[in-house]
Amino acid sequence: MNPLLAKLQPYPFERLRQLFAGVTPDAAHRPISLGIGEPKHPTPPFIRDALVQGLGALAGYPATAGEPALRAAFTGWLSTRYGLELDPATQVLPVNGSREALFALAQTVVDASVSPAPVVVSPNPFYQIYEGAALLAGADTWYAPSDPARNFAVDWDSVPEDVWARTQLVYVCSPGNPTGAVMPLDEWKKLFALSDRHGFVIASDECYSEIYFRDEPPLGGLEAAAKLGRGDFRRLIALTSLSKRSNVPGLRSGFVAGDASIIKNFLLYRTYHGSAMSGAVAAASIAAWGDETHVVDNRAQYRAKFAAVTPLLEPVLDVRLPDASFYLWAGVPPGWRGDDAAFARALYAQYNVTVLPGSYLARAWQGQNPGRGRIRMALVADTAECTEAARRIVRFCQSNPGA
């Protein structure tokens, strides 16, 4: 067996299952889960129709690079959303959801033959695929914490210079999971300067880019590069998907875009990896990327939920409206002394509401776990269910001021 597998830690939802083992929630309350970030809004009918109409493509093998119409759909959306003009032949590739691409990209980029061992830097807290991808690529990991005092911006300045010198890949997530923070242009400028100095690749995870609460949409990595005169997108790959934008998590469809030289090598890797997108999925994807009406409606539904839920929770939890994404990243009441796992377990037992302990989404690093004392709530169900969950959390906090 690959010995690197032994370095992987249990996935957060496996840890949550273990935390809840032996707990029988109060049957007076129907279960409500805010634990998993799985979109629950209905899939738009026109996307389903396009998928069915594309089933004839199942008779042939799909091209790993995707058909020209699919790649044109990607670049068309990038033009509409960000005002960018990318070459559909060399600067975009279809992927089977951003999750598999985030993993596979590390296997393409990281050179584990060097000494000392290469480093992959990620935010902390973070999406656990970043860590698994780094470890299985043979790299060491370094976790840059988010700063609550700066709206949970990642503290890139906390990474030592000798670590940057070994870094080959940096994962960023903007809008962030779980914090909902969006990277401003100045932060991108700092990261690009570090990339120029040390030669590392930036993988920008942007799967939440279309769920936002301000008037201005979140800045994307490619957009930031263009604004800063980096129109060749050197050492930058942006990754996005339809799962959250179009409510099709089961479609497993997304794309990567950016540096043509990295895209070329990523295509080579994927050709051997066997990661071609089904022609039927491609047909549905073309339809989805070409329509914005359903995206506006989807965003309006999330805005309504957050407008209803956030004010309810503010008196009992340390919580604020995020920049974007569909998560609330909330601090537990002081009486719980930062024990987010105990809070989540007791809430589940008494009110049958599932939230994810923040410490499960981070690593204890340099003496502290930056997720400790926080919980992540995914407002993916409908407004009524999310509001009911919030009311139960309020009652729980009022009757359980501390552990």
What would your notes on this structure say?
- The protein is built from 14 helices and 13 strands.
- The chain is an alpha/beta fold.
- It has two domains: 3-42 and 294-399, Aspartate Aminotransferase, domain 1, CATH 3.90.1150; 45-291, Aspartate Aminotransferase, domain 2 (3-Layer(aba) Sandwich), CATH 3.40.640.
- The strands form three sheets. It has an eight-stranded mixed β-sheet, with helices on both faces.
- The longest helix has 21 residues, at 293-313.
- It is globular.
- The N and C termini lie far apart (43 Å).
- The relative contact order is 0.18.
Task: Give a short synopsis of this structure.
The chain has 403 residues and is an alpha/beta fold. It has helices at residues 12-20, 45-53, 68-82, 98-109, 129-136, 161-166, 185-198, 221-227, 243-246, 260-273, 279-289, 293-313, 340-351, 383-399, and strands at 32-33, 92-95, 119-124, 140-147, 153-154, 167-173, 201-205, 236-241, 254-258, 327-331, 353-354, 356-357, 374-378. The longest helix has 21 residues, at 293-313.
Terminal residue distance: 43 Å
Assign an overall shape.
globular
Average of pLDDT: 97
> What would you say the CATH architecture of the largest domain is?
3-Layer(aba) Sandwich
- At the first level of CATH, what is the class of the largest domain? Alpha Beta
The succession of helices and strands, N to C, reads HEHHEHEHEEHEHEHEHEHHHEHEEEH
- How much of the sequence lies in strands comes to 5-15%
Q: What is the C-alpha radius of gyration, as a whole number of Å?
A: 21 Å
Number of strands: 13
Strand order of the largest sheet: 2-9-8-7-6-3-4-5
Spell out the CATH superfamily of the largest domain: Type I PLP-dependent aspartate aminotransferase-like (Major domain)
The DSSP helix count reads 14
How is the main sheet built?
Answer: 8 strands, mixed
CATH topology of the largest domain: Aspartate Aminotransferase, domain 2
